[in-house]
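Researcher: I'd like a candidate sequence for this fold, 190 residues long. If you have to choose between options at a position, lean toward the conservative one.
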């Protein structure tokens, strides 16, 4: 897996190419992929981005690896597969760290999907279900002041049945619609 260009998508949907960290194994210093070549490195050195992950067609079995985005210092440790374009993508369980931001959980085709926890640099966090890089399903969002919402999310919005507990411990339960509901005093979250 190492030695190829690495494609990365953040929860915001932005795409950046990333290069795997070189792994010392004697000899050349970089572990070569299944093809034995450096096809992705050549593209990365020319500044080209990899191809976004598709529907999983052409993916091999999962491998575990460590990838470093050299421009930002972000690191991914976890399972990967090679997509139909020949690019390794995050797929399976892993941990992504970008400065003080951290996601630990499941990925599908290079986006957060399944169960996982994300901690923001502000100290806010989300733990629960993800679908295509967005909070979706049951989860808990906690603000830096300690207040939290626990319940249903749809496409990154607090939506459905849940409860909100403020920093003083007061609790409200009920139906929430597009980030609006009983006791919810936070306009936005990260």
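Model: Candidate sequence:
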């Amino acid at each position: 897996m190492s030695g190829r260009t690495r494609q990365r998508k953040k929860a915001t949907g932005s795409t950046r190419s990333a290069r795997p960290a070189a792994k010392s194994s004697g000899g050349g210093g970089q572990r070569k992929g299944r093809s034995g070549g450096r096809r992705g490195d050549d593209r990365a050195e020319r500044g080209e981005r990899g191809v976004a992950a598709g529907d999983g067609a052409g993916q091999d079995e999962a491998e575990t690896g460590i990838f470093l985005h050299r421009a930002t210092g972000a690191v991914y440790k976890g399972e990967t597969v090679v997509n139909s374009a020949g690019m390794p993508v995050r797929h399976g369980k892993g941990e992504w760290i970008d400065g003080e931001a951290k996601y630990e959980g499941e990925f599908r085709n290079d986006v957060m999907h399944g169960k996982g926890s994300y901690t923001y640099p502000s100290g806010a966090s989300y733990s629960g279900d993800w679908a295509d890089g967005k909070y979706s399903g049951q989860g808990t969002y906690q603000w830096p002041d300690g207040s939290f919402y626990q319940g249903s999310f749809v496409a990154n919005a607090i939506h459905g049945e849940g409860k909100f507990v403020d920093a003083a411990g007061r609790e409200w339960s009920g139906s929430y619609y597009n980030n609006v509901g009983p006791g919810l005093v936070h306009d936005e979250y990260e």
